[in-house]
Specification:
The chain has about 425 residues and is of the alpha/beta class. The protein has 14 helices and 24 strands. A 4-stranded mixed β-sheet has the order 22-23-1-24. It is elongated. The structure holds ligand EPZ. The site of ligand EPZ has 25 residues, from helix 1, helix 5, helix 6 and helix 12. Ligand EPZ binds next to helix 1, helix 5, helix 6 and helix 12.
Amino acid sequence: MDKLLVRGGKPLHGTVRISGSKNAALPVMAATLLTPGVHRLRNVPRLRDTQTFARVLELLGAKVSFDSNLLTVDTREVNSVEAPYELVKTMRASIYVLGPLLARFGRAKVSLPGGCAWGPRPVNLHLTGLQAMGAVLEIEHGYIVGRDARLKGATIGFDVVSVGATAQLMMAAVLAEGTTVLENVALEPDVTVLGEVLVGCGARIEGLGSRRLTIHGVTSLRPIDTAIIPDRIEAATFAAVAAMTGGTIRLENVMPDHFEAALRKLEESGCALQRAADSVTVSGPARPRPLNVVTQPFPGFPTDMQAQMIAVCAVADGTSVVEDTIYLDRFTHVPELARMGAQIELKGNVAVVKGVDRLAGAQVMATDLRASACLVMAALAARGETLVDRIYHLDRGYESLEQKLAALGADIQRIH
Ligand code: EPZ
């Protein structure tokens, strides 16, 4: 299994170009199933997760080709409605094919996602929403099975703000008979942009950018031709690297509004920021100031930056408090940081982080995508060598991370 060897302790400087967004690309890839045609998606990041999704589409009968970051998906010959456990277990977002398959074919057989590194991640809102639209869904041998569904418009209110369920039901509703109203929807850019892509294909969606969407079903859509937005979590991660190492990093190809909450927290920690239309320059302080962070749905502070921010707080000049309200036990990175000398006390979904002068290199193990980014950041700031194991987690969501960091002056190498 690949590992990363990092020799830390120096500020990183330079410019990094941010890749396309994983969490924006995946639902748009699923949306290609809604219409038989040749779909073109530009700026798709080359990641394990986008390749897994491409594999799911191929198993359904689509022809998929990746040329650099251009993804072409031909869905004219789609002839299966089954998304197998082997793939879905490696990437929960595979469930995004459920709504489009039911909308186009009236049938679907999609494996339930199963467990996750940190606690339960149910899909009940996806299922109850589709059932409200008339889908008859059975759970058979670990699969969600839908038969003879003719989706109809419905009014659905989400108890919890869910990125996945909002995207799922939006895709199901665009081809449904009649009008669907979705209330208390997610506002994450990945969701709003999916809506804009669908409208660009002829869908009728009102209220994008608000917590209430009205979707008037249409009978057909045009193929997708779009460019995926920049990855706001990758951008915020590199901004945090500047805070962590005390360097100056210019982020290119970004939409600053998409990660404003993280930028504001980094300013509170002492970073100096220069914002421009499609770039941000972040200069880290000699030592970060402590922070209070509470994760919230967008436009609040993203849970996908919680681990990275704990790394910054681990070397802050004082005590920070980081609370995750989205995933109550997304703290598998904490014991690994402790191996590097971090002082973090966990109280339920709250981490109390007592900053230390300096972290020390150690052997650590990545447990999930964002936890691995956190460990790489800690390694960049630590004295000595760190070996980060199980970096396949990292490859799921960061395109060419070690090359980008090396270009900023990091002493980092992948060991096979
Ligand atoms: C998306 O996951 C992202 N994944 C996650 O990023 C991100 O952490 C999450 O949104 C929150 O921002 C992708 O976009 C592929 P949710 P998703 O549905 O859609 C509860 C990363 O690191 N819930 O918004 O699965 C759920 O348990 C990944 O890139 C239900 O109770 O998240 C959670 O507490 C990790 N029932 C909350 O809602 C449901 O049916 C938000 O989850 C669905 C969700």
